[in-house]
Backbone:
C-alpha cells in the first residue's frame, strides 16, 4: 500500500531530522551513503509513482541543505 502525501511528508521530515546524526555517525562517505540510500529507498518504495518526483525533490533539498548532492553518492555506479 502506498503512502499518502501527509504520511510521506512526516517520514521525510523524520529523515531530515536524522540527517545530522547520520552524518556524524558515518564519517566515511561510503558508509553514510549506504545508510542514507537504505533509508531513502525505503521511503521511495512506499511512494506512489506519481509522488516520486516530489519525494526526490525533497530528498535533494535536504541533502543540499547539508552541502551534499545525490550525485555525491559513490555507491551508485
Residues:
Amino acid at each position: 500500500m502506498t503512502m499518502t502525501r501527509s504520511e510521506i511528508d512526516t517520514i521525510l521530515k523524520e529523515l531530515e531530522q536524522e540527517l545530522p546524526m547520520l552524518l556524524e555517525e558515518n564519517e566515511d562517505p561510503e558508509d553514510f551513503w549506504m545508510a542514507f540510500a537504505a533509508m531513502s529507498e525505503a521511503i521511495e518504495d512506499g511512494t506512489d509513482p506519481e509522488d516520486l518526483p516530489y519525494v526526490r525533490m525533497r530528498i535533494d533539498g535536504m541533502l543540499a541543505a547539508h552541502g551534499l548532492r545525490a550525485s555525491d553518492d559513490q555507491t551508485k555506479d
Observations:
- DSSP finds three helices and no strands in the chain.
- Helices lie at 5-25, 29-45, 52-65.
- The longest helix spans residues 5-25.
